[in-house]
Specification:
single chain, Aspartate Aminotransferase, domain 1, Aspartate Aminotransferase, domain 2, 2 domains, seven-stranded mixed sheet, three-stranded mixed sheet, 15 helices, Aminotrans_II_pyridoxalP_BS, EC 2.3.1.29
Length: 395
């Protein structure tokens, strides 16, 4: 008997709970129309908001950098893994986010964990988090030494109660962390109210703009710009793997924050740096975002169309305000079946179940991009209607 046989029981348990994941395989470019598991489908699952994964300027930048600098750095940033390209990208990201400085880290996930772990270093600290924050924020809190306080999703009354509680008021250091756009529901954080409360209670504010960088605000600068809160949010987290179409994350804030994290952030200190081709891709992506505003305009035109049509068809999209558009199903088994049936109809929309979302909140998550054509979205809605009627979810 193998010592690893217990995994068979664990896997069977996952299958019984409809939580066992079988990986889909992408056999083409990450594009609005993609080949997945051998089938050509309308892709409603990628975070490729501005369709930059296939943009000619971005692809050329990656190829040119590879030829000039080689395929990798073979080192962490603090040894010899920081190139001139890294410095240029950080300077330009700080300009983009309108902060003093920025630090590029290996992923959006590790950017969140790095900040929480690096700043919340004592049991006398308090980390305050929205209950629907991304898993990386939750894990960052676990890695920190701070006391954790969780407020009900976007409930400002509950947040006020926490901030005014004796335990929090006497803390050495307080930091509130929120997603800018919540990745499962597509709703936007109540940032103006959060800022007002945190300023009143001397609390650091950290916003994870993973799903709003390149999507919300002037030129896609994120939620801080969207709400005109420049200079009032201490830390902005961004990702390079969604609207930018590549990989990586960054922390934007004051120069002291960047300098401190270079010496203390464990993901930054102990992970190899991005290849030059990736950094060059991000720089080119920034150029496209600045110089082709029509991409952002098309993203929102497509988003408005899809939301209106899917609601008109009779589906519930919950509180979505962004290109992330959930279609609520409310049952894990039905959500999985719905996703599978849509795939047969040529539409890929991923089912999301417990524990990613609460039981009873199972859904299909759709992400609309600038690359979709209206005809693609019309076909997708038609497939939703057909499958919804066949499954008895629509009359």
């Amino acid at each position: 008997m193998s010592r690893m046989d217990f995994l068979k029981d664990e896997i069977n348990k996952l299958k019984e709970e409809n939580r066992f994941i079988k990986l889909r395989v992408l056999e083409s470019e990450q594009a609005p129309i993609a080949v997945i598991d051998g089938k050509k489908v309308i892709n409603l699952t990628s975070n490729n908001y501005l369709n930059l994964t296939t943009h000619p300027k971005v692809k050329k930048a990656a190829a040119d950098a590879c030829l000039k600098y080689g395929i990798g750095t073979a080192a962490v940033r603090t040894i010899i893994g920081t190139t001139t390209l890294h410095g240029e990208l950080e300077k330009r990201l700080a300009e983009f986010k309108q902060t003093e400085a920025a630090l590029v880290i290996q992923s959006g996930f590790t950017s969140n964990t790095a900040v929480c772990q690096s700043l919340m270093t004592s049991h006398e600290d308090v980390l305050i988090s929205d209950e629907l924050n991304h898993a990386s924020i939750i894990d960052g809190g676990r890695l920190s030494k701070a006391v954790k306080k969780v407020y009900r999703h976007s409930d400002m009354t509950h947040l006020k109660e926490i901030l005014e509680s004796p335990e929090v008021k006497k803390a050495r250091r307080r930091m509130l962390v929120t997603d800018g756009v919540f990745s499962m529901d597509g709703d936007i954080a109540k940032l103006p109210e959060i800022v007002e409360l945190c300023e009143r209670h001397d609390t650091i504010i950290m916003v994870d703009d993973a799903h709003s960088s390149g999507v919300l605000g002037n030129q896609g600068r994120g939620t801080v710009d969207h709400f005109d809160l420049k200079g009032r949010v201490d830390i902005q987290i961004g990702t390079l793997s969604k609207a930018f179409g590549t990989i990586g994350g960054y922390v934007a804030g004051c120069q002291d924050l960047r300098d401190y994290m270079v010496s203390t952030a464990r993901p930054f200190l102990f992970s190899s740096s991005h290849p030059p081709s990736v950094i060059a891709t991000c720089l080119a992506g920034l150029d496209v975002i600045y110089n082709e505003p029509e991409l952002l305009e098309k993203l929102w035109t497509n988003t408005k169309f899809f939301k209106e049509e899917i609601v008109k068809a009779g589906f519930d999209i919950n509180k979505s305000e962004t290109p992330i558009t959930p279609v609520m199903i409310g049952d894990t088994k039905k959500a999985v079946e719905f996703s599978d049936r849509l795939f047969e109809e040529g539409v890929f929309a991923l089912s999301i179940g417990f524990p990613t979302v609460a039981k009873g909140k199972e859904r299909l998550r759709n992400i609309i991009t600038a690359g979709h054509e209206i005809t693609d979205l019309e076909r997708a809605v038609a497939a939703y209607k057909k499958v919804g009627k066949e499954m008895g979810l629509l009359s």
